[in-house]
Amino acid sequence: MSSNVSPGSLLKKLRKERGYSLREVARRSDLTASFLSQVEHGISNVSLDSLRRIAEALDVPLMYFLEEQPGDIENLSEHIEPEPCLDEDRITEYSPVVRAGCRPRLILPPSGVEYQLLVPDLSHKLEAVIGRLSPGTANVARKLREETEEFIYVLSGELLIELEGQEYVLRPGDSINFPGEKLTKLACASLDREASWISVITPPVF
Hints:
Number of helices: 4
Number of domains: 2
Largest sheet: 7 strands, antiparallel
CATH superfamily of the largest domain: Jelly Rolls
Strand content: 25-35%
Strand order of the largest sheet: 1-2-3-4-11-6-9
Radius of gyration: 17 Å
Oligomer: single chain
Mean pLDDT: 80
Structural class: alpha+beta
Order of helices and strands: HHHHEEEEEEEEEEE
């Protein structure tokens, strides 16, 4: 995908491929057709919760809506030294390597959430992403389509993880492993620094 691909344009493309009207996607996602139209035309931003509903309505992983573009990982530079994304890195032939500067990413400005994909695609038995949350932002988790297992390793800042009402605050170097259905909330617990983490999920339904 090119850098000008947005969740809205991908929604429109996939909806037409499925032969769905806006009303049908609205019915399946419990969102309004007018809102979906605004998302498709780039008029309205889409929250993580709404994007999850859209992905489930169209039967694709949330990460289908990733944008492939050089990632801004300045705040992760102490952990990862990126190499430039070169033209030869964008070849169509499958490669197991994902260059730091070429990671597909999903950015949702209203929620302050960003995800970057660390595996070449979502056709394998697990997925791995870098997640980022700005100070004062949170992501309320919704039940996934099937049972999963998730591992999180915190890179920077403080990450609050809520599992069925029990809260845990993780700091850089801390990790946690849990069944995906128990996750109810992710939040940046840092007051002046974003939280970033690596998440590994199996199967790749996120």
